[in-house]
Design a protein that fits this description.
By secondary structure, the chain is an all-alpha fold. The chain is built from eleven helices and no strands. This is HTH tetR-type domain-containing protein.
Length: 238
């Protein structure tokens, strides 16, 4: 789970004169330093998944990474800081993996495309269910953690909003919908259904979940029943 060189994610800019804090804010200056930082992020991911956020300690992370405790504080100022960055990296990876998992034939219908996108999301959610559950849990602790939870959620929703706007411009989706609120509601539907199912353990059948999510999504944006919005917009049904 390598972070990008020079990234400022998860680093608190304080303007303090503390040399160690300045090193954290400026980021690793060498390839070896970047590798060490990535090593700590990988170790933190492993520890958080194994022990949860509350029970995980910085000592556990440095033990997993096989580095001295002082090395940790050269790159991160707290457990909270490294957790926030791990969460952002997980979500970035999830978004890339969802795109890679969504393979759709060119001749596929819009409903089939929606279904493929949701199937890809379910597959990736399943692989990351433990970390997603931790984000939900930790998001209740402090304003900073709630902000992190909202931030990682918005990254996915912003992508969905761009897709819906393109579909509206192409005459595929209902142009009367508010793209922002529509994806907020549909995203919450998919996200919470997967949370109840894959994190809390509600015994849903995968095909039932996929079919229901696809139907609600398609009908909401007007793919399954476009006659009403096309007529209201003064456009003849296709």
């Amino acid at each position: 789970m390598a972070s990008r060189g020079g990234s400022t994610r998860g680093r608190r800019v304080t303007g303090a004169s503390d040399p160690q804090q300045q090193r954290r804010e400026s980021g690793p200056q060498t390839d070896k330093g970047q590798q060490r930082r990535d090593q700590l992020l990988e170790a933190a991911h492993t520890v958080f998944e194994r022990k949860g956020f509350v029970d995980a300690r910085v000592a556990d992370i440095v033990a997993e990474a096989r580095v001295a405790q002082g090395t940790f504080y050269s790159y991160f100022d707290s457990k909270d800081t490294i957790f926030r960055e791990v969460c952002e990296i997980v979500v970035e990876r999830m978004m890339a993996d969802v795109a890679a998992a969504t393979v759709v034939p060119r001749e596929a219908s819009m409903r089939e495309r929606i279904r493929a996108g949701l199937r890809g999301y379910i597959e990736v959610y399943r692989e990351n269910a433990r970390m997603i559950a931790l984000m939900e849990q930790v998001g209740t602790f402090t304003p900073e953690m709630r902000e992190t939870r909202l931030h990682v959620r918005e990254a996915w929703l912003a992508q969905l909003e761009r897709v819906l706007k393109r579909q509206q411009a192409d005459g595929i989706a209902d142009p009367t919908l508010d793209p922002f609120m529509t994806v907020q509601v549909l995203g919450a539907m998919a996200d919470h259904t997967c949370y109840v199912w894959l994190s809390l353990g509600k015994p849903f059948e995968e095909e039932d979940v996929l079919e229901s999510l696809t139907t609600v999504w398609a009908r909401t944006i007007g793919v399954d029943d476009s006659t009403s919005w096309r007529t209201a917009a003064g456009t003849a049904p296709a």
